[in-house]
Amino acid sequence: MPVTLIFRKSGHGEPVIILHGLYGASDNWISIARKLEERFTIFIPDLRNHGYSPHTTSHTYQDMVDDLSQFFNDHHISRAIVLGHSMGGKVAMMFAAEYPELVAGLIVADIAPKSYNLSDRPYKTVLEHELILGLMEELNLVAVSSRKEIDHFLSEKLHNSTLRQFLIKNIQRNKDNYFEWKINVPVLKHALVSITSGVSSEWFEDRKPILSYPVTFIRGLNSDYISDDDLPTIKSIYPDARIIGIPDAGHWLHSEQPEKFVEALLSVV
């Protein structure tokens, strides 16, 4: 069943829907929204099991597409540019394929239409997600009293301080004043294989070529989420797709190089 998504809204003009990635939330995109809101009405929902949106026992791409379809209906959005990062990029690709009449443009940030969970050669990104969710589940938040303690616990196995600070944004205090995760850790851990393998090139096999809306992929040139080897697959699905690379940017390209990211967005909308 679809859930009602909590969201941020700003600006005026043509609607743009921004879909965050795994562990993300709407507030990760506020600075990008501010650079766009003079020309666009920006909607940034928290996807299910993230931010302040409902926690559910199910977390599939079809679930998130159904949630987004309801979001369009609830807010009387007849057509919008859909921008998705990472997991949100796969939601955006699937939604656009299922509801092309609602999509004025598709922008996919640093994710490819492929499985990242190959049984014979798991991607290091998948192993990192397994580690992150395992640490989140292992950490006894009732026993810690500060974010500094949480950072220290995570730092023993996660050496990237930027990543740790991003994860700690998912911490809040509950009504009993104990820390808790905003994201639904057990459900996301259970769903990780489908998150990393879903909306692959096989899913598009009977839908390609897709030509009914403009498509742009924006990738961080320091990221391995979209490699040069993925470009023929992208072009087989989206023959007219534009591919833009952001130099000196990894997977979180919108926060690492925000000016260049916005410049890339504005060049295609």
List strands and helices in order, with pairings.
Layout: E1 7-11, E2 14-19, H1 30-36, E3 40-45, H2 61-74, E4 80-85, H3 87-98, E5 103-109, H4 124-138, H5 147-155, H6 161-168, E6 171-173, E7 179-181, H7 185-197, E8 215-220, H8 231-237, E9 242-246, H9 253-256, H10 258-266
Helix pairs in contact: 2-3, 4-7, 5-6
Verbal overview:
36% of the residues lie in helices and 17% in strands. With 269 residues, it is of the alpha/beta class. It folds into two domains: 178 residues, Alpha/Beta hydrolase fold, catalytic domain (Rossmann fold), CATH 3.40.50.1820; 69 residues, no CATH class. A seven-stranded mixed β-sheet has the order 1-3-2-4-5-8-9. A two-stranded antiparallel ribbon has the order 6-7. α5 crosses α6.
Summarize the structure.
With 269 residues, the chain is an alpha/beta fold. It has ten helices and nine strands.
CATH class designation of the largest domain: Alpha Beta
Q: Could you state the CATH homologous superfamily of the largest domain?
A: Alpha/Beta hydrolase fold, catalytic domain
- Spatial ordering of strands, largest sheet: 1-3-2-4-5-8-9
The number of distinct helices, counting runs of at least 4 residues, comes to 10
Rg measurement, Å: 18 Å
Number of domains: 2
CATH architecture of the largest domain: 3-Layer(aba) Sandwich
Poorly predicted ranges: none
| Helical residues, percent | 25-40%
Rough outline: globular
What profile does the largest beta sheet have? Answer: 7 strands, mixed
Estimate what percentage of residues fall within beta strands: 15-25%
Query: What do we call the CATH topology of the largest domain?
Result: Rossmann fold
Number of strands: 9
Secondary structural class: alpha/beta
